[in-house]
């Protein structure tokens, strides 16, 4: 009974393709009539942990169980046997991911029914398995499901009437194409488009329009037949001459037919392109339905169908690719583990080596589903040349999962080499690929990376002679963190690149020294002493990576390892070479509660204010600092609370060179907490530096700081003397 009480509530499930709820209803017996489209559900199922299939159409009589026939051709109305499929969990013998039958049929239309449904089911399962599913409710693709996410309700009873009419409309109940043609309004070239796309009164691109103007009408039509209608409208706007030559009702049928092919604006209808019809009329009729103001059921179904069609495309593209590629990542098999924060050990066969540095996404220990981040990756290692005497290429493959682009594989291709084996890690044959040209004798010095909690999003290479490649992938995301991997200069001119991956993307990347003559000495030394965790390049940073020289990081408190993915938030209050410290007049710490107290900081200067984290709510604890007269922060200690694995920053104390102190923490004390907090300085640090900032870590989807450390700039003797000789302060000893 206690176990039942402690179980979290079951969450509502949402379709991974369209984002509309998989409606559940309690039935004492099977219904005798058809249910609404959002209550008719299939599953991309996995049975006995290795057999994939698409179930028939079933119904949900609870939030997490689908009752459906295993035969794809049957449904709950005609099946004699139904099986229970557990949804969005992966531990039971029969489980899977639910999706609407209408969405499944749209996906089948997109694939033209050319792929065996069991292979489609396996690809869908693999894709869904790699995507986070917070609260076991909806997959997190990086988009809002075309607006449907706004109505997601993980708990409670979702009501269809709460949904906008657009999301209630069955995307498969669209009018027949013949009826759409009949709905086509009469066309007037000028009236139909000039109100939306006015023609220019002057030629905006004379050379371009004149070059097209020299073509015969037949050749002009042939050229523009590859354009979408939007591109054609834009082209007409560049020149009055083109606007006169391009008359819509005179365009050949091939132009209008192309608008219904894959990749064009009307491809959501999936018409039979071999069938002879008036494609211009069909286009006009479809636009009339889409632009109508009466919001009839037919118009809403077409609009919803178009929305879902756009969401399905990246998924369908990967299904097509999965059929002809291996999901086994390239490279030599290896194991990798983090012994303690920042200290990674690589095992390849019987050889154990320390990794120079490893960056990873959020690796979850959850086995049944993916709440966030990524599953434990498969590690591979490959030996890459750090120098290509004859030049060469670095190829980076990318993959699009939902709205986000990830790095999926990396390979090196030296020119004019006798070595025929491929130097590669990760996946190949994925749709996106960027080729980076490497000049002869250029030396690879470092690899800059961009991570999000789900994996590697961007990568670029820094070569000698200040050569920096363009970014491969996508780095435009609020959740991004950045780091740099230094490539060791070995005698062999090689280095080992370690990569962890799931079925599609890289989720970890690291460097291992490639010089066999130095490996044993480095291994013994590194395993004994561990890496230098004071270096800024040891960590991922957000929102950007500091580029200061002589920067050291230390004193992370509380001593909580947490997840391997723990990017540092850069709280830089000192500025370049500590130049801002002379104008620092005070700091504020923002505290919300006793459970997760510290959420933000504000620093006040004579000429500006810097804010970090959350600063709009909670209690503000203030401390004045006489920066203009030489007062500096000289020491910081912190205290945490909670268990070792789940502890977070509870309070911290700063001390200045004026022997002034200030405690920042909650004003109310939790039962069982130390009074006062127990501060501990965990690591010794060099006293020849200047504290110019803090660093903090946060757990996924939480606002409060989990850990805190300090940034220290190492100074020369002259600078250190100046810092150590402050003027007398006129401030009171403590202000709070």
UniProtKB/TrEMBL annotation:
Domain F-box as annotated: residue spans: 209-259
InterPro entries in alphabetical order: DUF7600, F-box-like_dom_sf, F-box_dom
CDD domains, per the entry: F-box_SF
SUPFAM superfamilies reported for this sequence: F-box domain (SSF81383)
Protein name as it appears in the record: F-box domain-containing protein
């Amino acid at each position: 009974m206690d176990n039942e009480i402690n179980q979290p509530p079951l969450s509502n499930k949402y379709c991974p393709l369209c984002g509309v709820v998989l409606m559940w209803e309690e039935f004492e017996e099977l219904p005798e009539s058809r249910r609404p489209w959002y209550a008719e559900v299939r599953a991309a199922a996995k049975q006995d942990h290795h057999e994939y299939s698409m179930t028939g159409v079933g119904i949900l009589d609870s939030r997490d169980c689908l009752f459906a026939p295993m035969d794809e051709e049957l449904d709950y109305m005609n099946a004699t046997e139904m099986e229970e499929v557990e949804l969005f969990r992966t531990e039971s013998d029969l489980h899977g991911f639910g999706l609407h039958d209408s969405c499944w049929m749209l996906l089948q239309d997109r694939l033209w029914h050319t792929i065996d449904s069991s292979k489609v089911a396996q690809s869908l399962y693999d894709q869904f398995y790699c995507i986070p599913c917070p609260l076991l409710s909806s997959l997190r693709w990086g988009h809002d499901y075309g607006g449907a996410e706004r109505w997601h309700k993980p708990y409670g009873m979702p009501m269809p009437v709460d949904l906008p009419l657009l999301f209630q409309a069955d995307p498969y109940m669209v009018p027949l194409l013949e009826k759409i043609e009949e709905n086509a309004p009469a066309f007037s070239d000028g009236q139909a488009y000039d109100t939306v796309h006015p023609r220019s009164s002057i030629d905006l691109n004379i050379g371009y329009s004149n070059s097209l103007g020299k073509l015969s009408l037949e050749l002009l039509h042939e050229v523009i037949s590859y354009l979408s209608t939007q591109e054609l409208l834009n082209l007409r706007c560049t020149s009055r001459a083109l606007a006169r030559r391009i008359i819509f009702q005179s365009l050949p049928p091939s132009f209008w037919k192309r608008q219904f092919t894959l990749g064009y604006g009307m491809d959501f209808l999936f018409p039979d392109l071999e069938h002879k019809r008036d494609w211009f009329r069909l286009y006009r009729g479809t636009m009339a339905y889409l632009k109508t103001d009466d919001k009839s059921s037919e118009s809403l179904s077409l609009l919803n169908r178009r929305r879902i069609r756009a969401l399905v495309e990246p998924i369908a593209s990967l299904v097509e690719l999965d059929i002809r590629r291996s999901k086994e990542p390239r490279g030599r098999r290896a194991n990798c583990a983090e012994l303690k924060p920042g200290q990674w050990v690589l095992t390849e066969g019987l050889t154990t080596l320390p990794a120079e540095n490893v960056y990873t996404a959020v690796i979850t220990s959850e086995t049944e589903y993916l709440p966030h981040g990524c599953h434990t990756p498969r590690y591979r290692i490959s030996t890459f040349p750090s120098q290509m005497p004859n030049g060469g290429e670095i190829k980076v493959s990318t993959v699009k999962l939902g709205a986000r682009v990830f790095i999926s594989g990396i390979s090196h291709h030296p020119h004019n080499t006798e070595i025929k084996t491929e130097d590669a890690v990760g996946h190949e044959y994925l749709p996106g690929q960027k080729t980076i040209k490497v000049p002869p004798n250029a030396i690879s010095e470092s690899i800059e990376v961009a991570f999000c909690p789900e994996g590697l999003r961007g990568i670029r290479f820094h070569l000698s002679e200040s050569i920096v490649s363009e970014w491969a992938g996508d780095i435009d995301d609020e959740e991004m963190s950045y780091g740099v991997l230094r490539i060791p200069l070995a005698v062999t001119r090689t280095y080992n690149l370690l990569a962890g991956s799931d079925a599609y993307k890289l989720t970890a990347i690291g460097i291992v020294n490639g010089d066999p003559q130095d490996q044993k000495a480095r291994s013994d030394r590194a395993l004994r002493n561990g890496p230098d965790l004071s270096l800024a390049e040891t960590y991922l940073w957000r929102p950007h990576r500091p580029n200061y020289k002589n920067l050291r990081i230390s004193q992370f408190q509380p001593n909580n390892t947490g997840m391997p993915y723990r990017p540092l938030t850069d709280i830089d209050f000192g500025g370049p070479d500590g130049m801002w410290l002379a104008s620092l007049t005070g700091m504020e710490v923002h505290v919300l509660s006793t459970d997760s107290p510290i959420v933000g900081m504000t620093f006040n200067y004579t000429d500006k204010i810097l804010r970090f984290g959350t600063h709009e709510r909670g209690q503000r604890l203030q401390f004045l600092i006489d920066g203009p007269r030489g007062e500096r922060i000289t020491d910081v200690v912190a205290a945490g609370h909670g268990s070792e694995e789940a502890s977070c920053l509870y309070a911290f104390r700063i001390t200045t060179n004026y022997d002034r102190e200030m405690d920042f923490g909650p004003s109310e004390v939790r039962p069982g907490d130390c009074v006062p907090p127990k501060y501990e300085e965990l690591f010794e640090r060099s006293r020849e530096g200047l504290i110019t900032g803090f660093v903090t870590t946060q757990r996924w989807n939480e606002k409060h700081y989990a850990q805190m450390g300090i940034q220290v700039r190492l100074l020369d003797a002259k600078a250190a003397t100046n810092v150590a000789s402050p003027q007398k302060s006129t401030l009171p000893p403590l202000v709070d």
